[in-house]
Design brief:
By secondary structure, the chain is of the alpha/beta class. It contains 10 helices and 13 strands. The protein is about 35% helix and about 20% strand.
Amino acid sequence: MRTDTDFHVPGIRPGAVLLAGEAMGLFTAGQEGPCSTVGTFQASVAGAELNVAIGLKRLGQHPEYLTKVGDDPLGVRIRMLMESERLDQRLVSVDARHHTGFMMKTRETKGDPKTYYYRKGSAASTISSADIDAVDPAGLSLVHLTGILPPLSPSTLDAAEAMVVFARRNNLFLSFDPNLRPALWVNEAVMKSTLRHLCAQSDLVLPGIAEGRELFGVDDVESIGQAFIDNGARVVVVKDGPRGAYATNGTDSVYVPGFVVDHVVDTVGAGDGFAAGLLSALLEGHSIAVAMERGCAVGAMQTQVVSDNEGLPTADRLDEFMMLHERATPARASLV
């Protein structure tokens, strides 16, 4: 394998991005301590696929986000946020029979926050393969799927599989973020087999170190990248936390360093920011190294806020951040 060799990702053309998933209400603790004892919470909106959609929109792309929400205050809040972000709501359904899911999150000054999900029986858990099949593929270029949608219900598992078929049938590029959420799965064996299967069908897979360790028993970026390539992925980008990111297509590979920030406020949403930055650059025709550099920058910016998506930048703010912030010391040489 040729190392420190930049490359372009084939099969991506300019166009809209289809995403499907669950948008939720988010209640973040107002101070440190267990959610059971803190006195105040800050309300916002969360959801991995929605975060990516917001990030893509702010960077000038055209996301089409499919979800279902309840006819309740949280559903209204989600639709209000989408309206404020100028996101198309043609694929958003309001379901009066099911509630909108929500989550609670602790506030931490060190380490990752603890999260608690209340999404069983939610409106989004009824997303089905029929919803995917009904999408008009005109204008689409890319389908982005995460590992959060499949375990929500048998119906959403079918929907995730339908997204793979939809991408193949319409000659669309398929991006997949495994996004491990063990608490959502019936058991570890089902989680591993399902995620490995979806990774194998994908043109681009975006694992982190945890996904490499959990799915293939390896925890260095080169071994993780190769494991996902051997499993069937065409291109793999491994998120290496604040250190940077590594990409391989099985022939060439390149590592880019991340960006240094003075203080991390909250790590949740950083991976979604990385995906939005990376995909926006690829849709613009940039190389994988340039795309990873943008992904690292957006991810770093998202760690500076409590909300899961408030830190996602516009293009101008992103350029300013990249000019003013130093790069991390990479674990290996970099082209960027």
